[in-house]
Amino acid sequence: MQLIKVGLCAFGMSGKVFHAPFIKEHPGFFLAALVERSKEESKADYPDAEIFRSVEKMLANADIDLIVVNTPVQTHFEYAKMALEAGKNVIVEKPFTVTSAEAEKLVEIAAKKNLFLSVYQNRRFDRDFLQVQKILESAKLGSIKEAEIRFDRFRPEPSSKEHKENPDLPGSGALHDLGSHLIDQATQLFGFPEKLFADVFSMKGSAFANDYFEIILYYSNDLRVRLKSSVFSKEAHYAYIFHGEKGSFLQERTDSQETELVAGAKPTFNETWTKPLAEPDGILTFINENSETERILTSSEPGDYMQYYSEIYEHIVFGAALPSPGVEILQNMKIIEAALDSSKQEKVIHL
Taking every annotated instance into account, which residue ranges of this chain make up the domain GFO/IDH/MocA-like oxidoreductase (predicted)? Predict the structure, then answer.
């Protein structure tokens, strides 16, 4: 296989969990370099990766084809721009950037340099979201009239991460962090909305960045899509709720990849590596072709974040479609900005 040499901009939680293991296990990639500013924790699992003390030094000295910008969001624009201008293809962790203007500039530079720019929207490869796509594609629900996508947590205590909790830092908070996933899933399923209304604030108080949001997306075919997240949700809700002309579908958030990776699981290439479900995680209720109501307990198939890197590889080597290209995620950034604007002005924002 053609070998793609990769440089990783940070070896924190994102690097250790979401990127380095998949780069190592995919036969088409080689983790050639990474940035650790003071430690050398990577040596145990990635002894062949050269360690640099800054992104600038890695870009200037490492023999790499592809850069993964997985630093705090406030630095995404700076490092991605630097990498593109150095002639490297770029993967940027979500959220893409702080503002849509930054995202647009990066898209322009990538196009001018004839390089690719992809955003790591890994939740497209969650088992629960893949099941949602499968059910909607089956058309058993008929035309969808109402949908809700949630990502709730119970984290009443603030995170120790300044770039996520400090309200004075642009791009901090749940809307950029988790909202980037929910907005991406909504636009993947239903496209770009006509307008929106949003409520965004901090349940923990004004000393912290937003940790709650509710966004209503309005579509031209009388569809309403609600996106919601809270850090004070001790009891789990259904993460996905869809109501259509012929039925309803309720899906739990059951993807365990992040939990298993944090616990030390190692992904494998072209093999299922996650734990199987213990019981069904969805309920499908619909009117069948005999005008009878059917109620089915559904079980989602395993997801796999390796698929993202496989699609990146296939794009580089075979010219296949690029997963979550920057020009696509730029539109999602506009929704995030409109949600902040809507909440501040307390009014519907037309897109």
Answer: 129-249
**CA dist 162 to 69, 158, 172, 223, Å?**
18, 10, 8, 38
By C-alpha distance, which of 230, 209, 217, 158 is closest to 191? 217
pLDDT at 313 (0 to 100): 98
All domains of the chain, ordered by start, with CATH?
4-120 (3.40.50.720), 123-302+332-350 (3.30.360.10)
Tens-digit pLDDT profile for residues 234-250: 998 999 999 999 999 99
Lowest mean pLDDT among 92-96, 160-164, 270-274, 313-317: 160-164
Identify the DSSP state of 113.
H
Which residues share a beta bridge with 201? Answer: 212
Asked if residues 174 and 231 have their Cβ atoms less than 8 Å apart, the reply is yes
45-69: average pLDDT: 97
How far is Cα 272 from Cα 260, in angstroms, rounded to an integer? 13
Stretch (H or E) spanning 43:
none
- pTM of the entire predicted model: 0.96
> In angstroms, how far is the first alpha carbon of the chain from the final one?
44
Give pLDDT tens digits for 158-184: 888 888 899 999 999 999 999 999 999
Q: Please check whether residue 123 is in contact with residue 129, taking contact to mean a CB–CB distance below 8 angstroms.
A: yes
User: 13 — phi, psi (to 5°)?
Assistant: -60, -45
Which residue spans within the chain are E strands per DSSP? 4-8, 29-35, 50-52, 66-69, 89-93, 117-120, 144-150, 195-201, 212-218, 224-229, 240-244, 247-251, 282-287, 293-298, 349-350
Chain-centroid distance, C-alpha 190 = 17
